[in-house]
């Protein structure tokens, strides 16, 4: 079996740590690029680590000479640093760049959210530099969708917000575990020529709001409390938050996408399936309580989310 040589930039976050672990477990040669001050003391045996300032193009070029694929998994704070990778990659042997995305293909409204616009600019810069890319789109993370209330589902509180027609429209979601397994399946051994310039969607669970409500009722032995918002209200709330710098603009936008039936379209038609993988079901996550908690949120964030249930 021929493995691709992979460099990972950003390996300690909620999603990135799981993806990194799956890539290591795949058997592919992994190199971690890390910033000064980052803790790499607990890296698995056999993983190479290189301290790199991505603004130092010569240093990045040197670190990437024996790499086939660069996978960036940085969070919001690191999006713009990816431009350093884009500048260096054309001078190396790298054949594929996977920028940090892990969401949907945003429409014009979605690009009003600053982080989404910054991601789009990185992808556009890579194209202008002639760098082959692969974009991975899992839709919504099940953990974010259902354990924070951000998208209008409160599993513990047995509440759900139907936005527009989300009661009957399908939302596409993946668990962190499934996304991690998908990265390993896609990038460890697949010939790079088969991956270049693709937008790959992931789909573990597809469910309507009514499906979620039924699972909530089964878990709690009582119907969930249901709230309803129009698509126009979601638009208004999103713009209000963008204008005033308030949190959750993205949450209202994602609720609107679900309610308008846009989510399946925005992960595309090129869906990657992992061979012999047992996907989680809605019943496992909600009824059986196998939903993993999302990253820890601040009290202010949780208070802002609570205000959206009315």
From TrEMBL:
Domain NmrA-like: 4-222
A GO term for molecular function: oxidoreductase activity
UniProt keyword Transmembrane helix, yes or no: no
InterPro entries documented for this protein: NAD(P)-bd_dom_sf (IPR036291), NmrA-like (IPR008030), NmrA/Isoflavone_reductase-like (IPR051609)
Record bears the keyword Transferase: no
UniProtKB keywords: NADP, Oxidoreductase
Source domain of life: Eukaryota
Name of the protein in question: NmrA-like domain-containing protein
Organism: Penicillium cinerascens
């Amino acid at each position: 079996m021929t493995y691709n040589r992979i460099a990972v930039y950003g390996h300690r976050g909620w999603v990135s740590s799981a993806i990194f672990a799956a890539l290591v477990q795949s058997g592919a040669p992994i190199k971690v690029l890390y910033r000064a001050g980052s803790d790499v003391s607990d890296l698995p045996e056999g993983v190479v680590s290189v301290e790199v300032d991505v603004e130092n193009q010569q240093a990045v070029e040197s670190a990437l000479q024996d790499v086939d694929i660069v996978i960036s998994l940085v969070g919001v704070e690191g999006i713009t640093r990816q431009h350093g990778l884009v500048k260096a990659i054309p001078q190396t042997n790298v054949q594929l760049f996977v920028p940090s995305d892990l969401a949907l293909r945003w429409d014009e409204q979605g690009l009003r959210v600053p982080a989404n616009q910054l991601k789009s600019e990185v992808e556009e810069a890579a194209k202008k530099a002639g760098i082959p890319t692969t974009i991975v789109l899992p839709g919504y993370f099940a953990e974010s969708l259902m354990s924070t209330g951000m998208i209008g589902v409160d599993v513990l509180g047995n509440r759900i917000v139907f936005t527009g027609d989300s009661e009957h429209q399908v939302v596409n979601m993946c668990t962190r575990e499934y996304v991690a397994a998908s990265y390993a399946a896609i990038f460890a051994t697949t010939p790079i020529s088969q991956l270049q310039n693709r937008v790959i969607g992931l789909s573990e669970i597809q469910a309507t709001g009514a499906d979620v409500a039924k699972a909530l009722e089964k878990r709690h032995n009582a119907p969930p409390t249901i709230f309803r918002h129009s698509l126009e209200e979601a638009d208004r709330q999103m713009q209000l938050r963008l204008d005033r710098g308030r949190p959750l603009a993205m949450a209202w936008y994602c609720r609107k996408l679900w309610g308008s039936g846009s989510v399946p379209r925005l992960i595309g038609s090129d869906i990657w399936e992992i061979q012999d993988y047992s996907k989680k079901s809605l019943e496992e996550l909600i009824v059986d309580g196998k939903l993993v908690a999302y990253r820890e949120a601040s009290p202010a964030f949780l208070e802002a989310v609570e205000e959206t249930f009315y």
